[in-house]
């Protein structure tokens, strides 16, 4: 298991999107944030070592790679964008993790089966589109599906302004939401319509406990 | 794509009731050694769909020694766990396709990545 500093250093090797697509809200997850997320998932909650993990909307694979480095046994990384997956595949290979991560090109609501009795997926991790501009409601669609497939927990990033709303949604879906950390998420000047060099927004790192959720 | 991933995938074409399991045909398969972790395989015993894993492995020529049912002593049966480990994690499908059992829709696998994207009229 890596120390936090080592994890973040390793994740600096992960290449970002070559040409981010605005309609998919392709903001890269920084090495710093991904390292903190994976470190916390394992060290505070034991949700990675020896577990199966799904990364919904994996983009260039930052969170998948972070989870694999923190001991996940099998990561299934799903994204709608084949160009992003090509980069993710290269990233995984560069870090010698290609054996730990499988990639699938797919769109919401994702072609994932729920398994025979116990669900097959322990942990879902994601940095979903914030669902604010061109894709209202997409954040909740991600969350709904994530809670459905996770046997243990879902970890996700959401705008702090949506916290109370997500708390209610989580309850409706049978999961217990906990704010693990409050972050300042720096959106680099990825797209032309951003005037300032970078924009800080307040983001919650959330954990949804799905273990009490009754199978239907 | 590992067969573990195949075990977790289904078809989500509009109107499909179950979409599971996807029928796998493979034109390029690679075997790659992965460190055996008995605990992981034991935990997958009641999570994977064994008949699907077995049948799929057989269809791509990798299921020679797999029993019809998971043995009663599976959790302590290292020979079985190693066989299951092999088909779950060490068989990589690089090229081929997945077929929806209900609609016959084919999803290509290229460079080990299944393309499950749907067309607009399939969503």
Automatic annotation (TrEMBL), chain A:
Transmembrane segments: none annotated. GO terms for molecular function: nucleic acid binding; rRNA (adenine-N6-)-methyltransferase activity. It comes from the Eukaryota. Pfam families: PrmA. InterPro entries: DNA_methylase_N6_adenine_CS, rRNA_MeTrfase/Polyamine_Synth, SAM-dependent_MTases_sf. One of its GO terms (biological process) is rRNA methylation. CDD domains: AdoMet_MTases. PROSITE patterns: N6_MTASE. SUPFAM superfamilies: S-adenosyl-L-methionine-dependent methyltransferases. This is Uncharacterized protein.
UniProtKB/TrEMBL annotation, chain B:
GO terms for cellular component: cytoplasm; nucleus; tRNA (m2G10) methyltransferase complex. One of its GO terms (molecular function) is tRNA methyltransferase activator activity. InterPro entries: Trm112, Trm112-like. CDD domains: Trm112-like. It comes from the Eukaryota. One of its GO terms (biological process) is maturation of LSU-rRNA. Belongs to the TRM112 family. This is Multifunctional methyltransferase subunit TRM112-like protein. It comes from Monosiga brevicollis. The lineage of its organism: Eukaryota, Choanoflagellata, Craspedida, Salpingoecidae, Monosiga.
């Amino acid at each position: 298991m890596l120390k936090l500093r080592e994890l973040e250093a390793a994740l600096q090797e992960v290449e970002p999107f070559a040409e981010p697509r605005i309609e998919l809200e392709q903001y890269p997850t920084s090495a710093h944030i991904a390292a903190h997320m994976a470190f916390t998932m394992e060290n505070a909650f034991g949700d990675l070592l020896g577990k199966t993990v799904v990364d919904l909307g994996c983009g260039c694979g930052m969170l998948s790679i972070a989870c694999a480095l923190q001991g996940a046994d099998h990561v299934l990384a799903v994204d709608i964008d084949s160009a992003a997956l090509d980069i993710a595949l290269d990233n995984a290979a560069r870090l010698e993790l290609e054996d730990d991560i499988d990639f699938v090109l797919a769109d919401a609501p994702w072609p994932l089966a729920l398994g025979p009795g116990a669900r097959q997926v322990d942990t879902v991790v994601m940095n979903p589109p914030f669902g604010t501009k061109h894709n209202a409601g997409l954040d909740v669609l991600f969350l709904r599906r994530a809670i459905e497939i996770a046997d243990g927990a879902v970890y996700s990033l959401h705008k702090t302004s949506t916290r109370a709303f997500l708390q209610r949604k989580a309850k409706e879906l049978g999961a217990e939401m906990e704010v693990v950390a409050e972050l300042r998420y720096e959106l680099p000047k990825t797209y032309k319509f951003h005037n300032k060099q970078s924009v800080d927004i307040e983001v919650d790192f959330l954990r949804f406990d799905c273990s009490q959720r009754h199978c239907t | 794509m590992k067969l573990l991933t195949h075990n977790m995938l289904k078809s989500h074409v509009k109107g499909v009731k179950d979409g599971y399991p996807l029928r796998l045909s493979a034109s390029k398969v690679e075997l790659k050694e992965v460190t055996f972790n008995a605990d992981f395989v034991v935990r997958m015993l009641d999570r994977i769909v064994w008949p699907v894993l077995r049948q799929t492995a057989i269809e791509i020529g990798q299921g020679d020694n797999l029993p019809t049912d998971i043995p009663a002593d599976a959790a302590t049966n290292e020979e079985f766990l190693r066989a299951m480990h092999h088909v779950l994690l060490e068989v990589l499908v690089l090229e081929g396709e997945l077929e929806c059992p209900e609609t016959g829709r084919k999803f290509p696998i290229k460079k080990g990545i299944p393309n499950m994207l749907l067309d607009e009229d399939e969503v």
